[in-house]
Task: structure prediction
Amino acid sequence: MTNRFRTPSGGRIDRRARVSFRFDGQTYDGFRGDTLASALIANGVHLVGRSFKYHRPRGFISAGSDEPNALVDVARDRARTAPNLRATQVELYEGLNATSQNRWPSLGFDAGAMNDLFSPFLPAGFYYKTFMWPAGAWKRFYEPKIRAMAGLGVAPTLPDPDRYTQNHAFCDVLVVGAGPAGLAAALAASESGAKVVLCDEQAELGGSLLAETTATIEGQPAAEWLSQTLATLTARDNVTLLPRTTAFGYFPHNLIALAERVTEHLASPDPNQPRERLWKVRAREVVIAAGALERPLVFPDNDRPGVMLADAGRTYLNRYGARVGERVVIFTAGDCGYRTALDLKAGGVAVVAVADLRAEVTGDLPARALAAGIDVRPATVVTGTSGRLRISAAHLAKVKDGAVGPSEKIACDALLMSGGLTPSVHLFSQSRGKLVWDEAAGAYLPGTSAERERSAGACRGVYGLAAVLEDGYAKGEAAASDARTHAAPGRAAAPASVAKGRAFNAAGDHASADGFIGATPHARNPAFVKAFVDWQNDVTVKDIKLATREGFRSIEHVKRYTTTGMATDQGKTSNMNALGIVSEAIGEAVPKIGLTTFRPPFTPTTFGIFAGEARGDLFDPVRKTAIHDWAAEHGATFEDVSLWKRAHYFPKAGEDMHAAVARECRAVRSSVGMFDASTLGKIEIVGPDAAEFMNRMYTNAWLKLAPGRLRYGVMLREDGFVMDDGVVGRMAEDRFHVTTTTGGAPRVLAHMEDYLQTEWPDLDVWLTSTTEQWAVIAVQGPKARAVLEPLVEGIDLSREAFPHMSVREGRICGVPTRLFSVSFTGELGFEVNVPATYGRAVWEAIFAAGEPFGITPYGTETMHVLRAEKGYIIVGQETDGTATPDDVGLGWAVGKAKKDFVGKRSLERAAFFRPDRKQLVGLLTKDPRTVLEEGAQVVADPKALVPVPMLGHVTSSYMSATLERSIALAVVKGGRARIGQTLVVPMPGRMIEVDVVEPVFYDPKGERLDG
Amino acid sequence: MLIIDCPWCGARPEVEFAYGGEAHIARPSDPSALSDQEWADFLYNRTNPKGLHAERWRHLHGCGRYFNAVRDTVSDFFVVTYKAGEPRPDAGTEGGDR
Result:
């Protein structure tokens, strides 16, 4: 098969560059400049897919991004597989490998096509009607079956090996669309020096000019004017031209997202180039020159391969030198069809007949068609087509006084249809501009703008080459002028500027606004007719009429019930006809029915482009402490705590986590351990009013805390629930060293800033995050003092001079330190704060000094076990945003005598005094070897009627090496009153009995704190 | 993505900012004097208007300052921004600035 349908000359393809490609395993030839669609058409291939629901054979409909049918999978290798690409937009390259979708075993014979026979049982909304019973069958049976049958391409399962980048760009004027209107706009805007970006989704800039063979502009052939204009624009430093770049999303304040396909069209992409690039363009002014889409006609069997849009047939011929068939019938509602008829005839295609929906056919184009000897039939409709995998005949019938006469079969291999033009208002609508129905244009056109943009050319219903060029030029001038006169996006509004304008001398055939919306008439039994409105989702006229009979009147409801316009083409070809059908069915004018909302993206966009570089190691920042590398060198496993990597435990050879944690725990309880606590949030609070500020932010009393002392602080939200906790040191009268939970640091600082800036700006206080400035080394255990003493200068570590909950400044290993006497383990303990840059050196010195005592580095898991043995809570584990201080046993930390602090008033709410509030308790399983699951429910009587009343849940649960049994913390309704009771934790297959106990399991009197 | 005019730094993209809820709701000077209902109003009840809304924003990834803004909740566009502590300006009887 060698390009039997290729014209001997003409088109924009490079006939010297032959390109070989594969489709469904078969090798074909095309030329550089072809799309996959044009190359297949040149080879006589029209059957390229199976439809979504009925598996009907389908061919190309359009030549652009509105294509609903010809979706293919293009694979370079198993990881580089892109499904659902429109063959009309896939550029041909040597070795391109494409396959069709949604068919099994093959495109010619598809087992799923039996759905077509069952179609009477698959009406609109059949999902909602059919799969209701038996209960549960949807998930187990129907959904998997339907998913296997329906659907489009298959996504690759391997990681994407390609690179995607993202650009921020700023310009005075962004022009979307490089057809005649967009080119003229870019010319005008750049004339004045404005910074202009011109983008177009196609490989070549030029839009409709690329398919013009007879039109002239300023006395030159259109193609000549196009190349000169592009040369002019390219030569201007202030212009950026972006072909292969789709403006897919319009976001507030003129942020427009562009997807540039950088290497998709290359046989051997440069590995240094990204595959795609996301442009986030912030434009002062935007010119939308998106053109118009041709509307299909809705008639019976209009989905046969070979049935296409008229202008697509013209584009394939003029731009790609590819004939869509040898004998063509044209069905048109306006002049568009005649333009195609004349060009096809000139290109050597037999135009058998033109069926015109209009009763009276007048005007220049039809007259020329008649003069050319084309069989023009006014008041004629297509009532059906013959053929299976390709159209073989069109059934034409006369319409007289609304009655459709008998049909005549006319043999053909292509049927081109034209229902008129639909302005492409997608981007304008995305910008939240108001669309207005224009009776004369028979279309929705851009009305009031919401953003600083203007539409130009066919996308606002301006047709005819000269008019479009002039409109584009005027809009480009105005945009550049407006961009000069207002400061920046988001700032003051600009005065409306007056464009000087420019006249263009242009000549060419152009389509009138004539057209048709809805379904064309036929005399066949509607029950046995499939006239497609939405090709991609297999929605027919019957489905839409059924929806209106079932009471759906709003187009938004009809859309969702029938799924019309909801496929990946977003109804580019279907929306207007669906409106027309609803309008006729319910007897309301089209503008009364409303219009569905256009949403981004304009065409499907890859996930890769959104991810950009933010994947793998670059997905999120990683925070590491100064001691991280030491821990890694000593075999630590790490866990993620917010963005931090924290040492989880330090397994020795042959140890699992359980064994390592048990060893680490015993070391701390019996001798000494060390722990990297650097991730704790730290805030330095300084100023004359620092103590007053602390007093207002925390529940505790701070005014009388002496410098050199520490206090455990509890922070509430204004609603009275625990927000954060941490140990706070008063370094001086006017200086506090505050610590927060690891994950809570930013939230706590923001909370403090909020009150300081907006409620109490009179307080003289400064807040500074110092989390990254301090490395914190916890040295815990009965030998902690003995380890540290030789390293510390200027601080007396004796209990008398340095009591528990104190802070001293001095030096350790010659480095300045804030030394805390504090314990989160229940043992004698110190936390050594040193400047982060010295963190590792001091850690290593302490490790060396501790070696005689068997000092043991431990991780977060051991820290958790040790604190749970002592009943110390972790905010976020024992609390969940609904716990008061009293609920978790912190009532003692609330300064009852204080007049006010954040959250105090809320603590007086009656609900906080209910006896059945969930309270922190300890749970001991009857079997000491059983470790409860965190999150497990706690109940009183598992045999109670379902739903069994839930009393609370397990918040922390560990095997305690020290106690040689399991321990757990839980929040339980009325928990403190239940101490001594036995409750039950129901788990799959068993009931675990637990004793409710005090939440402190080890050294309840705190005697070990003093070592 | 909106552009927000920080009264301290100028126009910056929305990603630099954090929303802070309705503006001009002062914390009562003596919460203990309030009834439960009055306190609940302060804590939870907001005007949630369709149209112009005075609200707090913080230039989190910038100067760190809280400031106030009037935004049209219909168009999503800002009418005016002003420093914390300043009264709500009269500006903005019409829709938002584009």
In short: The longest strand of chain B covers residues 52-58. Strands of chain B lie at 3-6, 10-13, 18-22, 52-58, 66-72, 78-83.
